[in-house]
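Study this chain:
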Amino acid sequence: MRCYAHRMRTRVTVTVDETALRAAEEAVTAGHARSVSAWVASAMIERARRDTLADVLADIRAELGPATEEETAWARSVLGL
């Protein structure tokens, strides 16, 4: 979250459901985020990272084919999944 504070920021308005808002507020209360805005920004960055990773994996699958069960098991163990 430290990086968030040093980047240019733009104010936006978003609509979220009550569950998402409570999760953000609880993260702030627990000290896991400095603000609801910081929590949302972090989630947006994480989503962008995952989307990029999904694109990379799709490219790998297109080039090499699907992973074998053994390869999948290895990846899950390395990633702690």
User: Anything to note?
Assistant: The two ends are 24 Å apart (CA to CA). The chain has one domain: 2-79. The chain has four helices and no strands.
